[in-house]
Amino acid sequence: MIVGVPKEIKTREYRVGMTPAIAKAYVTAGHQVFVEKGAGEGAGLPDGEYERVGAKILSSADEVWKRAEMIVKVKEPIEPEYERMQEGQVIYTYFHLAAVPELAKVLVKKKIAAVAYETIQPEDGSLPLLKPMSEVAGKMSIQVGATSLEKAHGGKGILLGGVPGVRPCKVAIIGGGVVGTCAAKVAVGMGADVTILDVNLDRLTYLDDIFQGRLRTLMSDSENIARCVRESDLVVGAVLIPGAKAPKLVSADLIKEMSKGSVVVDVAVDQGGCIETIKATTHDNPTYEVSGVIHYGVANMPGAVPMTSTFALTNATRPFGRKIADMGLIAAIRSDAALAKGLNTFGGHVTYEAVAKDLGYPYVAIEKAIEGR
């Protein structure tokens, strides 16, 4: 298979979809790998490293997209890339289509086989390709939250961990999954007063156990959320429903009840966000103010630490990408139920039910979409 790795063009996105070591594995297996010039430089991976392992460097994104049967990326294609997609092409990347209906429209029109990292799911319910970036974003949420709380950045001027004789920052984390757990690790480690909320009692029991009483756990219901948000200096939104829009758990009215200079960081923003007042921002302009509360809504947070993020992500994406290249997409998804769940669009159909529901498309089961192929 001919595999293309274009340079990411989203604002301040420095990650790359494939490392030289992984490119070597593809080449050794008999595949061709085309990498856009400079695609890996932001992650500390120069063109020469790709050439050394047998990949070919192409001078333009247009050429990579035109020649590749499968595109391997990090972030969802954005508008300048829509015209570059080739009908029937396989694109293997994060999509988060529930939040970008205009992209879904293009994928359907061009009959793209969109294999979404975020919905590949084994029988145990885990999301192995989302997990590494959730870990990065969870830890970063506290870093950026702490910075945003500084007066110079519009915050109330409170130190996350406080000092002897002065109270620490109150942090509420809504969602106890991978993002929430990693956020809690950093917040607790910095000495903050942390409460984590989740709807799963077993998960709360687990968190209470591993943190050994160093944070509070609460059932995530409307009353507990409202009370915690009002009292907190920093709120982290860490809620995920695979493939679907995030539920709005913090209303605009509740934001108004927070003290001035408080901060909200919504890690779910790429799925529409769980805070009503959130909107997607960029690393160039990461924050804005609503009702006196600082909002951080960068949709590609891990892009700020590309050396860590690229290796963490590609360690997880490699096995499924190789399976597609080695077997062909249809055979690969027929042989692997987890990979099949990653197929969001195919042949002009939306093949992931949550995306179809959120965007108003007819849902076509994968088995029907690939029938006869």
Number of helices: 15
Widest sheet: strand order? Answer: 3-2-1-4-5-6-14-15
Domain count: 2
Which structural category fits the helices and strands?
Answer: alpha/beta
Oligomer: single chain
**Main sheet: strands, sense, barrel:** 8 strands, mixed
Instruction: Categorize the overall geometry.
Output: globular
CATH top level label of the largest domain: Alpha Beta
Low-confidence stretches: none
Instruction: Tell me the CATH superfamily of the largest domain.
Output: NAD(P)-binding Rossmann-like Domain
Q: What's the architecture of the largest domain in CATH terms?
A: 3-Layer(aba) Sandwich
CATH topology of the largest domain: Rossmann fold
The radius of gyration over CA amounts to 21 Å
Mean pLDDT: 96
**Distance between the first and last residues' Cα:** 18 Å
Helical coverage, percent range: 25-40%
**What is the H-and-E element order?**
EHEHEHEHEHEHEHEHEHEHEEEHHHEEHH
Strand content: 15-25%
The tally of strands reads 15
